[in-house]
Design goal:
Blueprint: H1 2-36, H2 44-55, E1 58-69, E2 72-83, E3 89-100, H3 102-108, E4 113-126, H4 127-130, H5 143-155, E5 158-170, E6 173-188, E7 191-200, E8 208-215, E9 223-234, H6 236-242, E10 251-263, E11 266-274, E12 277-283, E13 286-292, E14 295-302, E15 305-310, E16 313-316, E17 321-332, E18 335-341, E19 343-344, H7 349-356, H8 360-366, E20 371-382, E21 385-396, E22 409-416, E23 419-431, E24 441-453, E25 462-472, E26 475-483, E27 487-497, H9 512-521, E28 522-536, E29 549-561, E30 570-580, E31 583-593, E32 596-598, E33 602-606, E34 614-624, H10 625-633, H11 641-648, E35 653-663, E36 669-684, E37 689-701, E38 704-714, E39 717-728, E40 731-743, H12 744-751, E41 759-773, E42 779-786, E43 791-793, E44 809-816, E45 819-826, E46 830-837, E47 842-850, E48 861-868, E49 871-872, H13 873-889, E50 898-911, E51 914-926, E52 929-935, E53 939-946, E54 954-963, H14 967-970, H15 975-980, E55 996-1005, E56 1008-1019, E57 1023-1033, E58 1036-1045, E59 1053-1062, H16 1065-1071, E60 1078-1080, E61 1083-1092, E62 1104-1111, E63 1114-1116, H17 1132-1142, ...
Helix pairs in contact: 7-8, 10-11
């Protein structure tokens, strides 16, 4: 026990002794150290060399100082730098302050610092190695760093680091600094614990608190945890780097807590719990914010790399939130992969708007305002090559320039450094447009694939869409495009609605007015197929230097095209629409315009869409004139060209060549063109004229129209015409000139066929028409003029003229659509005024003035005023009956009902030699008839013309009619010829004569008095009949009846029969001043005569028929050869002279007869008799032979048989050798018988004017001489010269 104690005390003694010795030595050492420390800087090179020799590290010490502080030495090192083998700075320390724990250093036999502080430390770390997950991946293998690890991890119980940096380096990125504001580190055995505050340089403005709790003897074997925490971590500096300096966030803060697990000295896992994180800023006066809600992040190493992923995160703004956000980030070797799920681009849109103001690419991107959900976003990077890919859901964007806006588009994309691909697909949505198209493009299905290729130094980037398909109903669009420094598009559109064509007109490449026009013009239809070709730089469009091509070719089917608002639409249109750079054309294949069928005849063109004032539409079509008129009436030209064509009333084929310049800048339409007429028919509205075979061209420029050298026909007559038209304040003014030169008979036939025989020669005339077409209706003035030179008018005096004479003919017309006022003036001698009703197409009133003084149109109905110094009845009667006949044939009479005819004629020649003087007349109308009062020197009468013209006819009551006859008429030789020459052609007008009933109280013609006359006549379809004619004067009566029978092959035939009865023919003939050889004698004459032609066409050479006459007691006396000789056909006066010459005592006082009778047969003007006989007192006369009434020649054989009685004077008178004086007395007393003449035969030949009477022979016989009963009254002594000379002719 004690030994034990001794040993213990011994040991203790030795221990204390050793301790004392040690203390003494230590004191000596400390003293030595204290005195040697101020000279430590002189050893820094030795220290640097010592470190290099021991650790192979290149260390430099800027300054070294030492001293003694309290219980131990203290060192101060400045500007310590450590370089690696490549002489790259790896570690630098601005200042190192070390206070050694002397005693612990002695106890541990190594330097032990009581206080160790590093200030301004910069440690450069390979970021890739730091995050490397392998166990054999130390931070740095340099021995000196191992020594530092031993120092800081084992030797130092406590040290601190202030104002230092861990600089993470990567070859491909700028250095990233972790700022250590304060780090306190404590080593206690194998537990190592540090805590402090750090920040990220350029990322945070304040610090993150952290705690690092490790276990292990070395860093390589250490394990433990890392804890990080931030409250309102200000990350504005990070956004300060990302944002331009002029754009600042108001606030950017992060709140999180993170736990990391460390194993074998390496970080094996970090889990981050996010709290509320937010950004806030001001933009355009409004406050904006973006929050990242609570969530988790997990980082952990992986083989040859690491990975980080998140749980569900929520992004939100003040009004909207986007939950379900997830992301992943992986690294393996040099490969990076990242994923982002359910990321809504709209969450970053407000912030992006802020950033885009100074970031040009972002600003350009944000114009589209993209919005979508990235359901799968993948990023991959490998050795500098990277790629993004992902799926897009509900992509929408706003349209910008020519890029459409999208809605509800899904797709996927792949993006690399050199190439990108985007596939899009959408259904039941639309494409919206900024300026390219007017309205959104709806579709049922959209599919597109786009490729982007990055550019190089010598190649522009390229965007290609090899397939783009859009379907909307029946419409389908297939397109491909390529965009680099130029644009290439090839597209095909099928079965599009043409009425929506405006949606496909590119606004930047067409004038607004052009697009607006086409959008309005294409009303309906189908775009069967449209092809678009674009090749060139859009900026160079429209490629005026041919540096590009832009073409659109569209086929329109069954379309409606409204080329101008007020023009009719083109319907059923089949056309081709072509855009060629700045040129636009439309060519029709078929269609209809206002009922006009079109066949490749309509085209439209805009030569330059960007310098377009007008759209030029050309219509080149042969059409029906009436259809062209209707087209113009439905157009803005309705008030000028339309009304003109309507007024012209054109029918037939015309060729229209119309250019419509539709204003694109101003709402105007200029219509220019020509209308070519080729055998076109015209029906002028006023004056009413039917024209045919119109040839020529009419040109127009809007309201101005002009036509020169027009050729046309009017009723077969060629005319020349000219036409001009223009607007005025009163309306549209149209001037039409018609000129012609024609044969007068052709012109008369065209005007009125019955006038044809009344004219001869040629006629020049000109018609000027001035037409005013206001908004409604029309007014016009027309004038026709002619001097009638070379025109002969075969009219009754005073209106007739020869071709050499000039007579002014002037016809004027003026009116409106309801009526026209017509006026005709002929040589100031004839005037005609009328009012024409256009609705009824007949004259409503008229006035014909046959006088020098024109009294105008002054009453209703049809009035005729006449004031002539002289007129011939027969020519006027022929003219009037022609007109009346023509009027009767007209179903709708052109002239109004005759109301009044009033006038006077100083001298009216009724027939040759028959004159009425100072004639005044007035024709008035009653409800059922016209009443004529006709008075004059020779006539007083009342006439009634029934309006039932053919039924009841005319009745006339004449108080008296005394027609004087001139000497020429009294010459009976000239009368038949005069009457026959009146009219030589068939008188079929007689068939139209109405029934006539005439009474005359006292009628006479010249010296021929007829007394009281009654007559009735009527017409049938083929015959004019004189039913009754009677004339009673004193004791004479003439009755007659007859007819004129029409014959279509000839002039017909007249036949009349009648009876003349008179008590004293001689007295009647004397009163008629018809001197003849007849005295006294009653007469009863029956006649039945006929001749070819009408009654007034009597011609002796055609006369036929028979006459039977019977005369009572009378006598024949000698008459002169001069004057009227009623019985010239027998030449009885010549025969009487012969008998009186031979038998003066018998015929001294005339040839008395008891009766005279006979029958005449007339054939072709030759009157023949075989039984004419005179029962005379002195003897009987038998006549046979003929008289030629035409040649006026005679050939008769006459036999005179004396009557021998017992009267001695008679016997003596007829003795063959008559005795004289006493011989006769002796004879009477002595002789018992005597030889007397029993028969004398004569021939009468020669002419009516110079008959030749020739005694042919005589016959004698013996007669007994009675006893003298009386003394002869006288003794006839015939001189020798008076004795008969035998058969000598006498005349």
């Amino acid at each position: 026990m004690q030994g034990t104690k001794r040993v213990c005390f011994y040991c203790l003694h030795k221990l204390w002794l050793a301790l004392a010795l040690t203390l003494v030595l230590l004191a000596v050492l400390i003293s030595v150290l204290r005195y040697s420390l101020p000279y430590a800087d002189g050893y820094k090179q030795h220290i640097e060399q010592l470190i290099y020799n021991r650790y192979g590290a290149d260390v430099s010490i800027g300054q070294l100082s030492a001293g003694w502080q309290k219980y131990g030495p203290a060192l101060l090192l400045k500007d310590v730098q450590l370089h690696d083998e490549q002489q790259q700075l790896q570690l630098s320390i601005a200042q190192t302050s070390v206070r050694l724990d002397f005693w612990r250093s002695l106890l541990n036999r190594q330097l032990t610092a009581q206080h160790f502080e590093l200030s301004g430390l910069k440690y450069y770390i390979d970021a890739d190695r730091l995050l490397q997950a392998g166990q054999n991946a130390p931070l740095d293998a340099a021995p000196v760093l191992d020594a530092l690890e031993t120092l800081f991890f084992r030797q130092l119980a406590y040290f601190s680091v202030v104002d230092s940096q861990l600089i993470l380096q990567n070859d491909n990125n700028p250095d990233f600094s972790i700022m250590i504001k304060q780090l306190d580190w404590a080593n206690s055995g194998n537990r190592h614990q540090g805590y402090g505050d750090l920040s990220l340089a350029g990322v945070t403005a304040n610090t993150v608190s952290f705690v690092l709790d490790l276990y292990g003897d070395s860093l390589a074997q250490a394990f433990g945890q890392l804890y990080l925490q931030s409250e309102q971590l200000d990350v504005l500096p990070l956004f300060g780097k990302l944002l331009p300096p002029s754009r600042k966030l108001d606030q950017a803060s992060i709140n999180f807590a993170a736990w990391g697990r460390i194993d074998k000295g390496l970080l094996q896992r970090i889990q981050v719990e996010l709290a509320d994180n937010s950004l806030s800023w001001q933009h355009q006066g409004q406050q904006h914010s973006l929050q990242l809600g609570q969530g988790q992040l997990l980082w952990q190493p992986a083989e040859q790399g690491w990975s980080m992923q998140s749980g569900d995160l929520t992004l939100s703004t003040a009004t909207q939130s986007w939950p379900g956000l997830q992301f992943q980030l992986h690294r393996q070797h040099n490969q990076w992969q990242a994923g982002l799920n359910q990321f809504a681009l709209a969450a970053l849109s407000p912030l992006a708007q802020l950033l885009a103001e100074d970031i040009a690419p972002l600003q350009q991107l944000m114009q589209y305002q993209p919005n979508a959900t990235l359901t799968q976003l993948q990023w991959h990077s490998d050795d500098g090559q990277w790629q993004f890919s992902g799926d897009i859901n509900a992509l929408s964007s706003e349209p910008v320039a020519d890029v459409p806006g999208l809605q509800q588009v899904n797709g996927d994309f792949v993006i690399g450094a050199e190439l990108a691909r985007l596939r899009l697909h959408s259904e039941k949505s639309q494409l919206s447009w900024d300026k390219l198209f007017n309205v959104a493009t709806g579709y049922d299905e959209l599919a597109a694939t786009l490729y982007w290729q990055a550019g190089t130094a010598d190649r522009h980037w390229r965007l290609t869409a090899p397939q783009l398909q859009l379907k909307a109903g029946a419409m389908q669009l297939d397109a491909s495009l390529q965009l680099d420094d130029s644009l290439q598009i090839l597209a095909k559109l099928q079965q599009a609605d043409a009425s929506q064509a405006g949606r496909f007109f590119p606004a930047p490449y067409m004038l607004d007015k052009v697009r607006a026009y086409l959008d309005q013009a294409i009303v309906a239809g189908t775009v069967a197929e449209a092809t678009v070709l674009w090749h060139g730089k859009p900026a160079d469009f429209p490629y005026r230097e041919h540096q590009g091509v832009f073409q659109v070719q569209a086929q329109l089917e069954d379309s409606q095209f409204e080329f101008a608002p007020e023009w009719p639409q083109l319907s059923g249109l089949s056309a081709e629409l072509l855009f060629d750079n700045a040129n636009m054309q439309i060519h029709t294949r078929a269609g209809e315009l206002a009922g006009i069928a079109l066949h490749q005849t309509v085209s439209a063109e805009i030569p330059d869409l960007f310098a377009a004032d007008t759209l030029d539409i050309r219509i080149n079509q042969t059409v029906e004139a009436s259809a062209l008129t209707q087209l113009m009436l439905q157009s803005p030209l309705a008030d000028n060209l339309g009304k003109t064509l309507q007024h012209l009333g054109a029918t037939g084929q015309v060729h229209g060549d119309v250019l419509l310049a539709v204003g694109l800048k101003q709402p105007t339409v200029q219509a220019i063109g020509t209308v070519t007429f080729d055998d076109t028919e015209l029906a002028l509205a006023a004056p009413a004229m039917q024209l045919s075979r119109l040839q020529g061209k009419l040109t127009f420029d809007n309201e101005q129209i002009k036509a020169d050298s027009l050729k046309l026909h009017w009723r077969g007559l060629p005319l020349n015409a000219a036409l001009q038209g223009e607007n005025s304040a009163q309306g549209y003014q149209l001037a039409l000139q018609l000129t012609g030169r024609h044969q007068a008979q052709q012109l008369a036939q065209a005007l009125h066929q019955p006038l044809q025989p009344l004219v001869e020669g040629a006629t020049d005339w000109q018609l000027n028409l001035a037409l005013n077409l206001p908004q409604s209706g029309f007014t016009y003035q027309a004038e026709l003029v002619s001097d009638l030179q070379q025109t002969a008018l075969l009219l009754p005096a005073p209106y007739g003229k020869t071709g050499a004479d000039r007579r002014k003919l002037n016809v004027t017309a003026n009116g409106n659509e309801q009526r026209s006022l017509l006026a005709l003036h002929y040589n100031d001698q004839l005037h005609f005024h009328a009012e024409l009703s256009h609705e009824q197409q007949r004259l409503s009133r008229a006035h014909l003035v046959l006088a020098e003084t024109d009294i105008g149109l002054n009453s209703n109905g049809f009035n005729v005023s006449i004031d002539l110094p002289q007129a011939e009845f027969l020519p006027w009667f022929e003219l009037l009956q022609q007109q009346l006949s023509d009027s009767a044939e007209t179903e709708q009479p052109f002239f109004p009902q005759l109301s009044l005819v009033r006038g006077k004629v100083a001298r009216l020649d009724m027939a040759p030699g028959i004159v009425l003087n100072n004639t005044v007349f007035e024709l008035t109308t009653l409800p059922d008839s016209w009443q004529l009062q006709l008075n004059g020197t020779e006539i007083a009468s009342r006439w009634s013309f029934s309006k039932d013209w053919q039924g009841k006819g005319i009745s006339a009551a004449l108080d008296y009619l005394h027609l004087p006859l001139t000497n020429a008429v009294l010459n009976t030789d000239e009368l038949p010829q005069t009457v026959a020459e009146v009219i030589q052609h068939p008188q079929r007008w007689l068939l139209q004569l109405p029934p006539l009933q005439l009474t005359c109280g006292d009628c006479s013609v010249g010296n021929y008095r007829f007394g009281k006359v009654n007559a009735k006549a009527q017409s049938t379809a083929e015959q004019w009949q004189l039913n009754e004619f009677s004339a009673d004067y004193k004791r004479s009566r003439l009755t007659a009846s007859g007819s004129w029978q029409n014959d279509s092959n000839s002039a017909g035939r007249s036949q009349f029969s009648g009876r003349l009865q008179t008590a004293n023919l001689g007295a009647m003939l004397d009163e008629f001043q018809l001197t003849s050889a007849i005295s006294g004698s009653s007469a009863d004459i029956d006649f039945d005569l006929n001749w070819p032609g009408a009654p007034q066409q009597f011609a002796p050479d055609e006369l036929a028929g028979k006459v039977k006459f019977a005369l009572g007691e009378g006598s024949l006396t000698e008459v002169s050869d001069q004057g009227s000789r009623l019985f010239s056909i027998f030449s009885l006066d010549s025969l009487l002279r012969k008998l009186r010459l031979d038998f003066r005592d018998v015929f001294a006082k005339g040839f008395f007869y008891n009766s005279m009778s006979g029958n005449l047969a007339i054939t072709q003007g030759v009157a023949q008799t075989s039984d004419a006989a005179i029962d005379g007192v002195p003897g009987n006369l038998q006549i046979q032979g003929y008289a030629d009434l035409v040649g006026k020649e005679l050939d008769y054989q006459m036999a005179f048989s004396p009557k021998v009685t017992s009267s001695l004077p008679v016997i003596i008178a007829w003795m063959v050798n008559p005795a004289t004086g006493l011989a006769a007395l002796a004879l009477d007393e002595v002789f018992q018988s005597a030889e007397v003449i029993s028969k004398i035969n004569f021939t009468v030949t020669g002419s009516f004017d110079k008959p030749v009477v020739t005694e042919v022979n005589r016959h004698s016989t013996e007669v007994p001489v009675p006893v003298r009963v009386a003394q002869p009254e006288a003794i006839i002594n015939l001189p020798a010269a008076d004795q008969p000379q035998g058969k000598q002719p006498h005349g």
